[in-house]
Specification:
Elements: H1 10-16, H2 23-51, H3 56-76
Length: 87
């Protein structure tokens, strides 16, 4: 008999669970994830501005483009109006 991989602990599985059969659950998950990524990029930009490293301007520019793309995705897919969202 072949052994099957064990499932992650129930609480971990629930925390990361996205109900793909329910559209609003997916919308909410994607909205939350994109907002987290934008916030992380904004923190990186602030850190780079304080660090004054030689290539900081290039990295800041790249991060700003990533932020704009993520915000554009949110706007195009109207994720800003997701139920329970802060926007």
């Amino acid at each position: 008999m072949a052994s099957q991989p064990s499932d992650p602990p129930e609480n971990d599985q629930d925390r990361r669970s996205v109900r793909l059969d329910q559209h609003e659950s997916v919308r909410s998950h994607v909205h939350r994830r994109l907002n987290d990524e934008v916030a992380q990029l904004e923190r990186r930009i602030e850190t780079l501005r304080l660090a004054k490293s030689p290539h900081a301007a290039i990295m800041i520019s790249a991060y700003e483009r990533m932020i704009e793309r993520k915000k554009g995705f949110i706007e195009r897919w109207r994720l800003g109006n997701a139920p329970g969202g802060s926007e």
